[in-house]
Amino acid sequence: MSELAARRRAIWDSLPATWRGPAARLVASWLALIVLFMPDWADMADQWWNASTYNHILFVPLISAWLVSLRWPQLRQLEPHAWWPGLVLVGGAALVWLLGAFSGFNLFRHFGAVALLPASAVALLGPRVTLGLLFPLAYLMFLVPFGDELVPALQMITAEISIGLVHASGVPAIIDGVFIETPVGVFEVAEACSGVKFLVAMVAFATFVANLFFRSWWRRAGFMAFAVVVPIVANGIRAWGTIYIAQSQGVEFAAGFDHIVYGWVFFALVLVLVLALSWKFFDREADDPMIDAEAIAARDLGPLSRGQARPLRLLLATGAIVLAVQLWAGAANAMEASVPERIDLPAVEGWEQIDYAPALAWEPKAAGAQHRLLGRYRDGQGRTLDVFVALYAAQREGAEPGAFGQGALDPASDWAFNGAGAPIADAKSEMLLGAGRQGRAAATFYRVGDRLTGSRAALKLAAMRDRLLLDPRPVTMLVLSPETRAPDEAAAIIADFREATGPLGTWLDRLTAGG
């Protein structure tokens, strides 16, 4: 017998007899769920390994396993059993995955795929064992890569902290969105400098620490709030330090220094600071058990104590739920709405189409669209407006107009987000800055059915509705973009263009109908 086989045999022999069957079924069901949702797990694994924001997730399975080992001396006193009500959680996780598959919202897909693991554990192990394993099972949800949605807000927060400190340190500076101009140059709080990678890693770490070293829920909540605020403030201080050093040592020296500091060294220093300021408030003794098995066994669970199931039937029911959502998703995603073979930008009264000649190359990103148009209009006052239209036959993987990185700002281009634009009805309004010098406003509209909206959330909900009802509708993305750094001027140009087109939704319907 090989050493590995002997080790496995020793682990199996160490399990109480009442745990062997449930443990084997749990391992088998988890392996099956990972295989059945392999595209989602592969996508997540790619992000864990290749995206620095999510490298910390590689430690989550190890941390969860260690948390189980800390509870094992108590857990082995509890008797697991299959439990029918656990299928409610299995169905809920499968539904979240299905809605993510319908909308092209990867966060939902990933959340659902991961949530099926703890949900199936609840169903296969029963309510009392679940109480003992509640935190390790919940901690598995940190396997879901999240945080990209926070980048724009964190960029703005970091820029505001930085400019405040720059002024306080006596350096003259002007802020324009995420760009800070000083006597030695212009500094951009780019996406990579937003601090999101340290924030999401700190949240995962702080959650682990809060459970391990605190017993009081008030102290846990206070520690979590502190652990969120400190990295955000520290990142603003780091950005200010780079700008301040550049004033005397030059931009290149400051950039090199920042690249050395801005990495896991910076995160380690912030982590040490948080722990150093918090350790005296820890209220769990080192030898305190993580759970009280006797209290869990004696607890009156009321109706939850009923519902014991036969394991094989429960496994078959779980398989049926998973198979149903996957078949439904496959059928819905195979459907497409009909779209014309050709579309053209129409004439607009009071505006003439002219050659598209931007001061700096700009083109929105619309991966998976069946048609794309980009043109320029000019009115009688000489004002120009760039118009981009993308038409989708369906929203699905690889064709998601509301996905991160799609729309007016192509992350791979020379353009950067520079703050919110002036409010524009039915649109997402934002200001962009290209190569640190060229300004541009962008108002993004989505047309689904008879609804015109600038909300990506509304777009996702529309996709869910279409898939649930197996009723695909085309989606149109429209971006109206004047070259200007003045939000109010941009809003005025866009308002005049909309007045000339008439109701924008109706105008888009005619455009995308090929007429």
Quick synopsis:
The chain has 515 residues and is α+β, with helices and mostly antiparallel strands. The chain has helices at residues 3-14, 17-36, 38-50, 60-75, 86-103, 106-125, 127-139, 151-168, 196-213, 217-249, 251-261, 264-278, 293-298, 311-333, 456-468, 487-501, 504-512, and strands at residues 174-176, 179-182, 185-188, 351-354, 371-379, 384-392, 415-420, 428-434, 438-448, 451-453, 475-481.
Kindly state the percentage of residues in helix. 40-55%
Encode the helix/strand succession as letters.
Answer: HHHHHHHHEEEHHHHHHEEEEEEEHEHH
Oligomer: single chain
The number of helical runs is 17
> How many discrete domains?
3
Low-confidence stretches: none
Q: Rough shape? A: flat
Indicate the radius of gyration in whole angstroms.
27 Å
The pLDDT mean sits at: 89
Structural classification: alpha+beta
What does it look like?
It is a single chain. The protein is an alpha+beta fold. The protein folds into 3 domains: 3-146 and 300-333, no CATH class; 148-281, no CATH class; 351-512, no CATH class. It is 53% helix and 13% strand. It is built from 17 helices and 11 strands. The protein has helices at 3-14, 17-36, 38-50, 60-75, 86-103, 106-125, 127-139, 151-168, 196-213, 217-249, 251-261, 264-278, 293-298, 311-333, 456-468, 487-501, 504-512, and strands at residues 174-176, 179-182, 185-188, 351-354, 371-379, 384-392, 415-420, 428-434, 438-448, 451-453, 475-481. Strands 4, 5, 6, 7, 8, 9, 10 and 11 form an 8-stranded antiparallel β-sheet that branches. Helix 5 (86-103) packs parallel to helix 14, helix 6 runs antiparallel to helix 7 (127-139) and helix 9 (196-213) runs antiparallel to helix 10. The termini are far apart. The mean pLDDT is 89. This is Exosortase A.
